[in-house]
Specification:
Largest sheet: 8 strands, mixed
Low-confidence stretches: 109-115, 591-596
Mean pLDDT: 88
Number of domains: 3
CATH superfamily of the largest domain: DNA ligase/mRNA capping enzyme
Distance between the termini: 43 Å
Number of strands: 22
Number of helices: 22
Shape: globular
Helix content: 25-40%
CATH class of the largest domain: Alpha Beta
Radius of gyration: 25 Å
CATH topology of the largest domain: D-amino Acid Aminotransferase, Chain A, domain 1
CATH architecture of the largest domain: 2-Layer Sandwich
Strand content: 15-25%
Length: about 600
Amino acid sequence: MKVDPLHFSELAASFRQLEETSSRIALVGILAELFRSTPPDEIAPTTYLLQGRLAPAFVPLELGMGLQNVAAAIAQAYDTDRATVLRRFDRVGDLGTVAGQLAAEAGSSVQSTDTGYPLGVVPASVREVFDRLVETACMAGPGSVERKVSVLARLLSELDPLSATYLARIPLGTLRLGVGDLSILDAYSVAQVGDKSLRPRLERAYNETSDLGLIGATVWTHGIDAVDALGIRVGNPVRAMLAERLPSAEAILDKLGRCAIENKYDGFRCQVHKAGDDIKIFSRNLEEMTDAFPEIATGAVRQIGAETAIFEGEALAYNPLSDEYLPFQQTMRRRRKHEIDATAAALPLRLFAFDVLYVDGENVTSQSYTDRRSRLGQLIVPGETILVSEAHIVDEVDTLMALFDDAIQNGLEGIMAKKLDAPYQAGARSLNWVKLKRAQAGQLRDTVDCVIIGYIYGRGRRAALGVGALLVAVYDPERDVFTSITKIGTGLSDAEWRAVRERCASCEREEKPARVESKLIPSVWVEPVVVVEVLADEITRSPLYTAGVQDNQPGYALRFPRLVGFREADKRPEDATTVTEIVELYNQQGAKPVPG
């Protein structure tokens, strides 16, 4: 095992390989080789940098530098002015490329031919660069922006051109490496034992801790048994358990038997962590939202009857004048980082708690749904902000449908059916939880969450908007790839089409991303990052798309798709609708099931 420091230039070379590959298998191989050459104390920083971060997703540690600040740092590093840097940026469209070009030009007369570094400069290690970036991210107060620019400029001036290229992209979130969380776990396993056999154990730990760097550092330093012992901990969000779909009350009772029925709220799923008076609130995509939801944090201090606890609920914006709950888009307005007090007064939240994972040092996820619900009821002291969601035990179709109809009449999305003896399965999607949502027009009775993987240039008026149609995909968790399912050309205004282009700008790729499968080639490829909610008339079979392709059968496609809204604020790409769900929805339409 390597003990010498990993140079940042070596990491940059791996970045380039990752960016250039279009094969998911090759991507895992590149990562595994990188990890083999990384000493144990640099596994965590290397992992975070591969994700374009300085910490796990739930830690709000950001460099806080926009395009203008990074351009200023590049100008300072290479003795030019910001206007020149920005003119180059306008030509090439990437500040990282500009940094690399200027680094090559500035060092051409003094560079050492064997290292690529300026003479007299010792290659920086990954740990050195990472620590300086973390120090920069922690700068605050008057003059902090100028100090950040100076530190980044100094770092750039010490790096070779390729390293400068990738370093400049990190503050802007434009690494575009195509590396998914499961790909990193696969690479950990391959680097450790030569195959993917450790993946299930690593993934279980990831689902409970949400920290890939912690998992990597643990397995490299203490071995896989230590990873098994990590477990759930207050402060680390647990990856959410997800629900499958079934088409009817009859199908639900056939599959689950006697079960619990809860309302399915169209709100913002929250996971609340309590350690004394310290409260942290996380979204489903692991972002900390505590500051945005102050009334829930206050309610947790007042209403949770335990010293430490982790529980989940659905937050909904509430109109106290009309005594009604507001739609999802209204609730999402509460995510704003500015004018929080005014927004909270106008759109107060209530949290409907529906599950508990941890109480006073005890991990209760392995307990049955029935036992966890009992613990939840004991945990929450009655109050106005945090309410325990209603649950009704049913074993008859008529009773289930009466609860479903009541939910729809009250403006909710539908219901959730939960198996009474089932544990909480972190990060899993299973038939232990089943959702039944209100029927939509057409044969497809539910919306589908897709991920944008490319866009096609428009014609006529659309040409001026820069995008005319979106190519979208669903997720195949077994292979950790996104497979194409439809093109979307309707459902957006001109302003929304422009917004789509802006959302995709930072994740555009010249070549197909490694985790994307598509027979259609768009005008521009896009890293699978942006999640959209799509409504279609039905699911059909089509040779044009790759979703569900098996044994020379055509793939699945959405017929007459319309974009309903964007969901990346509360859903990760891996939370998108799965290929298995698409096949089930297709069969639920009454079409003849496809063998296999």
